[in-house]
Amino acid sequence: MSDSKNGLLGLGSHGPAVLDVRTRLAALASDALPELADLLVGAPDPEAYDEGLLHAVRAFQQHKGLIVDGVVGVETFGAIDGARWSLGDRLLTHTPGHLQRGEDVVALQERLNTLGFASGRVDGRFGPETERAVRSFQRAYGLPGDGSVGPETFRAFDDLRRSVSGGSANVLRERERVRRSGHNLSGRTVVLDPGHGGDNTGATANGLVESDLVMDLARRIEGRLTAIGVAVVFTRTEHTCPTEEERAAIANNAGADLLLSLHADSHDAADASGVATFFFGRDRATSWSAIGEHLADLVLREIVARTGLANCRSHGRSWTLLQQTTMPTVRIEAGYLSHPADAARLADPAFRDTLAEALLVSLQRLYLGDDDTTKTGVLHLGDLRAYLAAHS
């Protein structure tokens, strides 16, 4: 997941690109992330990707909710580059196809949401929704509504104090949107994102291939969803492998209510096993999806209760697909192909049916809200219609 802007950079790499990464991290160490300083000092060859730089990259990735692999690819380099900007450092404007990204955009989106001008998910990308929120703010403040954030708009922000209290306005809006949408899962649109695809097979171990396995699981989920009147959209076929950005665009263009990204894990450690879920969540209290976190927790608990897989917990991350989707999105790592016991269970079609049912019930329970009194792990597809009728 870390295709590089200038080729992958990792331990053993050497050259100007490594020096560039080191220089950028050093600048952050003297400003926003002082904990990096000790990891970057005393390098005998600044153009060498050594152990110190490896640990600094990992620390940065951990701080930003990225995949902590110590490899500098497109996503990590973009985050390093964007971290240098503070709100007010540069003119911000929406340019289709070339979106400005950075911590200054994050701060702008947080400020707009806090003041009641909905800029959408705090993803650090100056897109059309952020531009609309800027225009609304400018008009409300008596400024020309051009959608660009320059000196006058910065001054206007400085003149205002927080006008929304009691939590993130964006989080409150997200929760209210789900509450008002009703209890029934039927009639909604769910995007299923089987990981990898085409020539990208993902993990392979113990006779299993991740891309094939998650496509089979997606088909089982699809059958159950369509049976209760849910429209299902796939992000790929058996022969295609869209980028994370393309998958997010498919979901956004479909106007989906939810997205499930299906994966299976693998690790060199022989005892690594279990299920984990991931939702959009950065290092800031307002840069997260409250509903995504709730759904991730529901999915995790249902799978663990029904399968006995080890609970590897739910985690907030700022991975591209989680960040760029406009609906609650959850990524599921449904066991480790590299673990013989997990692999044996995933190879069993009946076990994949159990996973599919756990996911279906999780989606429905998301919309039941306070009316959901069902014990985790006991609701099944056969009595789901009756359950919904009783709560309508």
TrEMBL record:
Its EC number is 3.5.1.28. The keyword Oxidoreductase does not apply. One of its GO terms (cellular component) is outer membrane-bounded periplasmic space. Residues 248-364 form the MurNAc-LAA domain. The keyword tRNA processing does not apply. Pfam families: Amidase_3, PG_binding_1. It comes from the Bacteria. One of its GO terms (biological process) is peptidoglycan catabolic process. Keywords: Hydrolase. GO terms for molecular function: N-acetylmuramoyl-L-alanine amidase activity. This is N-acetylmuramoyl-L-alanine amidase.
